């Protein structure tokens, strides 16, 4: 099983159909609207804009498990992302990333690894579904390590 076999809804409802990204490089990030790291949305959108035509998908997963920093409804989250950051990458429904209610997407990403530390932790998933890298919440989307990991996996 990989992330592509997991059911998760889009922010606006209906299946996100992760299987359609099987041939893409996917950067999965647990996001929040009221966090000190929220400005990373800008960098995530820039990455998506720069690499989407080469096969990168940024996938935002709202989570309210860290100090209640994603309290909004789906409509509020969508409006926040659009108005403040012009987000065009796909965003899923809210999901728990830690604990007994951990969403299956995060069970696939983490495996036996450590829990998610905070909002904006990042996972790079290669085409086919293998997790290639994991980056801390404080690692900016434009960090050279993230760019190198993405570049290594994308077609030239």
TrEMBL record:
Keywords: Oxidoreductase, Peroxidase. The active site is at 35. Signal peptide: none annotated. The keyword Glycoprotein does not apply. InterPro entries: Glutathione_peroxidase, Thioredoxin-like_sf. GO terms for biological process: cellular response to oxidative stress. It comes from the Bacteria. It holds the Pfam family GSHPx. GO terms for molecular function: peroxidase activity. CDD domains: GSH_Peroxidase (cd00340). Gene3D superfamilies: Glutaredoxin. The keyword Transport does not apply. PANTHER family: GLUTATHIONE PEROXIDASE, THIOREDOXIN_GLUTATHIONE PEROXIDASE BTUE. Belongs to the glutathione peroxidase family. This is Glutathione peroxidase.
């Amino acid at each position: 099983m990989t992330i592509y076999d997991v059911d998760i809804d889009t922010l606006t409802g209906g299946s996100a159909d992760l299987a359609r990204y099987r041939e893409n490089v996917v950067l999965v990030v647990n996001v929040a609207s009221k966090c000190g790291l929220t400005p990373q949305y800008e960098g995530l959108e820039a990455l998506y804009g720069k690499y989407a035509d080469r096969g990168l998908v940024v996938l935002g997963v709202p989570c309210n498990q860290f100090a209640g920093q994603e309290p909004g409804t789906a409509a509020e989250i969508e409006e926040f992302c659009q108005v403040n950051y012009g987000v065009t990458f796909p965003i899923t429904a809210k999901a728990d990333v830690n604990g007994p209610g951990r969403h299956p997407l995060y069970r696939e990403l983490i495996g036996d690894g450590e829990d998610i530390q905070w909002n904006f932790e990042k996972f790079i998933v290669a085409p086919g579904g293998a997790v290639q890298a994991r980056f801390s919440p404080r690692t900016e989307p434009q960090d050279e390590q993230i760019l190198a990991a993405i570049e290594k996996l994308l077609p030239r």
